[in-house]
Amino acid sequence: MPGAVLLVAATGVALVVALLLLLYLMSPLDHPKPLSLSGAHVVVTGGSSGIGKSIAIECFRQGAFLTLIARNEKRLLEAKKEIEKFSVNDKQ
Ligand SMILES: NC(=O)c1ccc[n+]([C@@H]2O[C@H](COP(=O)([O-])OP(=O)(O)OC[C@H]3O[C@@H](n4cnc5c(N)ncnc54)[C@H](OP(=O)(O)O)[C@@H]3O)[C@@H](O)[C@H]2O)c1
Description:
Elements: H1 2-30, E1 41-45, H2 50-61, E2 65-69, H3 73-84
Parallel strand pairs: 1-2
The chain binds NADP nicotinamide-adenine-dinucleotide phosphate.
């Protein structure tokens, strides 16, 4: 009989520990940390126009370093010039 009580208690403790572990592992989903792009290096494929350029501008405004990838060099250089207006520090 004491063995059965011990087994039930151990199972209860194991369930509580498993529940706490699950809550701990899921906590980043509930309170996600904001992503800091300051000083990060972001590579944007298709960064010379459209959605890619908008993403590049937003990353640059948040202090990221950028590498833009596209085929047309002229459009890439135009995008670079436009994006550089959104610089937030001297290092960019
Ligand atoms: N805009 C929308 O509302 C929308 C909606 C749904 C899906 N999409 C999709 O999202 C993507 C981007 O849309 P967008 O409106 O931003 O288009 P976009 O203004 O035409 O921009 C496309 C970018 O990708 C580059 N690119 C194209 N082919 C490439 C290749 N083979 N290698 C490297 N770079 C390449 C282009 O530069 P180069 O031509 O110089 O290489 C340009 O920088 C497209 O696939 C589009 O179909 C867009």
